[in-house]
Amino acid sequence: MSDGNGTAAADDSTPYLQMRGISKNYGGVQALSSVDFAARRGSIHAVLGENGAGKSTLIKIASGVVAPSEGEMRVAGAPVAFRTPLEANAAGVVCIFQELSLLPDLSVADNISITAPPRTRLGLIDTRAQRRRAEELLARVGCEDIDPRERLKNLPLSRRQMVEIAKALGRNPQLLILDEATSALTSADVAKVYDILHTLRQEGLCLLYISHRMHEIEELADTLSVFRNGRHISTFDKGAHGDDQIVEMMIGRDWSNVFPPKPKRNAQPAPALDVENLSWPPTLSSISLSVGEGEIVGIGGLDGQGQRELLLALFGVLRGVGGTVKVGGEEKRIGAPATAKSAQNRIALIPEDRKTEGLMLPMSVAENITVAALNKVAKNLVIDKSAEAKAIEEMVARMQIKAGDLAAPVATLSGGNQQKVVIAKWLLTGARIILLNDPTRGIDVGTKQEIYQLLRDLAADGAAILFYTTDYDELIGCCDRVLILYGGEIVRTLEGEDITETNIVAASLNLAGDEAAA
Amino acid sequence: MSFRIDTPILIGLVFISLILAAGTSYTLATQGTATFVSPTYLLQQLHFGAFLGMTAAGMMLVILLGHIDLSVPWTLTASAMVASAIGGFAGDMTGLMVGLTVGLVNGIGVAFLRVPSMIFTLGMNTVLLGLMVMLTGGHAPQSAATDLMLFLGRDRTLGVPHSVIVWLIISAAIIFMLTRTAVGRYMYAIGNREAAAYLSGVRTRLVIVGAFMMCSACAAIAGISLAGYSARAFQAMGDPYLLPSIAAVVLGGTNILGGQGKYSGTVVGVILIVLLQSMLSIMQMEEAYRQVIYGAVIILMLLIYSRGRGRAAEA
Amino acid sequence: MKTARLFLGQNAGILLAIALFLALYSIYVSLHPNWGMNVVLQNGNETLALILVGMAQTMAVLVGGLDLSVGPLMTLTNCFGSIVMAGTGGSILAGIVACMALGTACGFLNGCIIVYGRIQPIIATLATGAIFLGLALLLRPTPGGAIDGDFAWAFTNDLNELGYTYGWWEDLGLIGRIPLQPVYLALIILLVWIPFKRSVTGRGCYAIGSNAHAAYMSGVRIDRSKIAAFTLAGFFAGCAGIYLTMQMGSGNADAPQAAEYTLRSIAAVVIGGTSLYGGTGGVIGTIFGALVLRSISFIFRVVPEDSTVGFVASPLLQPFFEGLILLLAVSLGAARTFRAKNRLTLFS
Fold it and tell me: How far apart are CA C213 and CA C209, in angstroms?
C-alpha cells in the first residue's frame, strides 16, 4: 500500500482529537462524566463499551450533534465548539452514524454530495459532475453496481450502508468516526471496508471505530478505549489485555453465570404452538415447528433469513400467510395482533424495535404497562383505576423496573428498563406463548441477565417461548432447542449438547453439519 | 395520578383574564359599566360559544389521533339543513344520522384506505357542499328550525342556555372517555405511535373510525343547535367554525401531531377564542382589525408555549 | 433502457397527473361545440391563479408542512395590487414588483415564525392567514379599484393581442395565438423554480421533507431551506394575486374565495403527485393537478343536457362531482394498502 501523501504523522506529539473533562447530562441523566480522551493520526482507535456506556454521546459531541455540558475539545490542537454537524464537517470531522444519515427520497448522487455539491458557473448544482463524483466514490468503496441516479429508498440496507461510507469519504475527513458502520454489510463488503480503513490509516487519518464485534476490533484497531457508565475506564494498545479482561472492563464485573441453568427437559411437553407448512412467499416457505409448554425454542441464522417475518406471521401481522397454526392443539386463524392476544390464543410479541413498535414513548410508564391488558383492569371498557394501579405496582415489582415516577414518560427510562416495560406489558396480558424478537439488543448486561432468568421462570411456569436472537451465546445459553433459518426455511434443528457455536455457524451458512464439525 | 395544570392551560387562563380585564376597562372607560364581566353578558357569550365548543370537542378527538377533519363545516351545515328540510323529530334524528354517516365514511377512508385525513376529509367537505347545493337547487326546501333545534339552540332553563348544557354534557362524556375508558387510552396510544398500539393488540382502525364518527356527531349536534339559535338552517353556516375549532384545540395545548393534550385545554381554548371575538366586537373593532388581532394573538400564544417547551427540554 | 426505467419510476406521480389531465381535457374538447384557441385562452385565464396557489402550497408540502395562508395571501396581494397597479405605463410595472415583494415578504414572515418560533406550519399559517385577510380587508373594505383596461386586457390575452394593444409587434401568426398564461408559467418555471430546485437550498427542502433528522445529521441547513420554501410559497401566492388583479381588474377581500383557493391548492398538490408527507414531487406535477381540477369543472359546462348523461350537466351537481372525483382519485392510491403484505409497513 502506498503511503498516501506522506502526512502519516505517528510522531506527531499532539493527538488529533483531544477531549478534556467532557461531561454531558440529559435532563438529570449523566451520559458522560468528566471524560479525558485522545486519539492520534494514523491509527484506528476502537471505542468499546456496553450500551449506555457513553460511546454514542462521545461520538455525538465529537461530530457536533450535541454540545457538551462542560469540558474542552481540541481538534488538531485548536480548541473547537461545534454547534452543528456542518461545523464539525468543516473542521474535518465526519461521522458515519449507526442510524444512517441518508435521505430516502433523494438520489444516491444527491445523497453523496448533499452539502457541498459541484456547481456550475451560475452556482447551481452540476448534476453531471455530481454523478461523476458519486461514481468515483462508489468505485472507491467497490460498489460500481450502484446507479447514482437511483433513489436511495430503492436500495437494500447493505447497499445504503455502503453509500453512507462513500458519502463520508467524499467529505475529505481528517477524523472519521464509524459507529457500528458494518452491522448490515455482507462479508465481501466488510472486507472492502477494512481495506479502505487500512488505506486511510496509512494516509494519516484518525479513525474512531465503534463496534460490538470483538473479532472486528481485533482485526482493525491498534488502540482500544473502554467506556463504562459514562466514564472513560482505560485506553491501551491492542494485545495489552485479553478478551476476557476487556469484557470485564466493559461490564465492570465477572462474566460468568450469565445464563440460568437449563432444567432437565420433559421429553413430551404438552403442545402449545404447532406450525405446519407455514409460508409467506417469497420470504418464508414450508416452516413447520412446534413449541411445547415450558420450552424455550431459539431461532437463529444469519440476519434477514425470515426470522422476523416468522414471528410477525405468527402474531397476525402479515397478510397472505399459508399453512396451519395450532394453539394448544386447536387450529386457529390469526389475522391481527388483537386476535393473537385474545383469551383464546394468548400470544405475545416483544417486537424488534422497542422505541417505535413496543412503546408509546411520550406516554407514561404506567400507561404503557397496561395498554395491552386494559380489559383485565376494566369493566365494560371503564378502567378501574385502583385495579390498574395495583396491576402496575405488581408488574413494576416483579420486573424490577427502575422508574422514579410511573407517571413520567417512558422515554425517560434507560433502554433496559424500557425493554422491561415492554415485557411487563405482555406479562400482564397473561400470555402463554411468547414470541421474542431480539429482545436484548442494546441492553446492559445486568438487565440481560434478568431477562434470561425471567424467560426461564416463565417457561417453568408453563409458557411456551419462541426466542429469536442475533447473539449466538443466547441461543446456546438460553434455549432448549434451536431452529436455524436459511432462505426462509428451517435448515437445521439443534438440541441439547448439539447447540454449539460451531454447529450454529455452520447451519447458518447452510453447510452440512458434519463437514463443519470436522 | 395527581391533578396537574399544564402550561398551555395556564397560559390560556392568563390570556382569558387579560382579555376580561382589557374588555372591562374598555367598557368602564367608554360606558362607565363593567358590562364585559356581568354574568348576563358572559352567559350570552357562552350561549353562542357553545356551538364552537361542541365542534372543537369533536375536532380534538381526531387531532388527538394525529388526524384532522376538514369536513366539519359542511357536516355541520348538512346535518342542520337535512334536519330542517325533513322537519320534526324524525328530521333531527336524520340530521344526526347524516353526521354519523359522514364520520363513518371519513373513518373508513382514513383508517382502512389510509388516505391522509387532510385530503380525504377535504374531498368529503366538497361532496357534502355539492349535495347541499343539489338539495336547495331545484326547489327551496323547508329551512325553519325544528322544535328540538329551538329547544337546544335558543331556549334557556333558569337562565342557563340549553346549548351550554349540551356542551357540558358532551364535555363530560369526552372527559370520561379520555380519562376513564380503554377507548380513550387507545386514542392517546394511537396518536403517539400507531404501530406500537397495533402491535399491542389494539384494534386501531375501529378506534380511528369511532373517533371520526364522534367528531362528525359533535359537528351534527352543533349544527342542529346552531340552526335553533339562528332559527333556521342555511348554506355555509358551518364555514366560520373550521379554523376557530382547530385553533381552540391547539391553543388548549393539544399537539397538532397527535398523542398529547387534555380536554380541559380545549375548553379553555374555546372560551379564549369566544371572549377574544366578543371583546373585539364590543370594542366595535372593524372586521379587518379583528382578523389581524385574532391571528396575532394565536401566534403570540403559540410563541409563548414553544418558548416554554424549549426551556423544559433544555432543563 | 435503465434510464427510461429510472425516469418512469421517479416521475410516476407527475406522469399520472398528466395522463389524467389529457384524458379529462380530451373529453372536454370532444364535447365542446366550438373549441378553439379562444376557449383555451379562457380556460387558461380561469386556471392560472389556482396553478400558482397550488405551486405555493407545493413548497410547504415539500418540506413536510402545510400552508393555510396561501389563499389569504393571494387575496392580500390582489387587494394591494388593485391599489398599486392602478396607474398606467411604468407605474404598473412598479406595482407588480411591489406585489411580488409583498408576497415574498409575507412568505418570509411565515417561514421565520415557523422556524424560529418552532410552531407547526399548519397552525402558524392558520394564524397568519387570518392576519393577511385582515390586512386585505383593511386595504379594500369593499371590492373595488380599477386597473387600466388596456393593460388588463392585453396581459391576460395572447401574444398577438399584447402586440396589437401596445403596438410592439404585428401579427405573429400561429405563434401569436399562444395564450400568455403558459408563457408566464414557463417564465416562472425557468427563472425561479428550476434554479431553486437545482440550488443547494432547494435540494435541502427535499432533504428535510424526506427525513428531517437525517438531513440535519448530514449537515443540511434546515432553517435556511425551510424559510426559503415558505418564502417561495409567498412569492408564488403573490404572483397568483397579481394575476387575479389583472384578470378581474379590481381587488376583493373575499374570504370564502381565499379559503376555497387554499383547500383546492391542497387537492392540486396531491393530484399532482407530491406526497403530503414531503420529500417527493414538485411544482410541475401541481400544475397538472390544478389543470385536472379545472378540467373537471370545464366538462360540466359542455355536457349536452339532452344526452343520456345529461342529468349531470346541471351546474348544481358540479361541486358534488368535483369532490367525488377527488375522493376517488385519492382512494385509488389506497390500492397500496390492500397490496401491503406486511401490515406494519402501513404505519410508516
Answer: 10
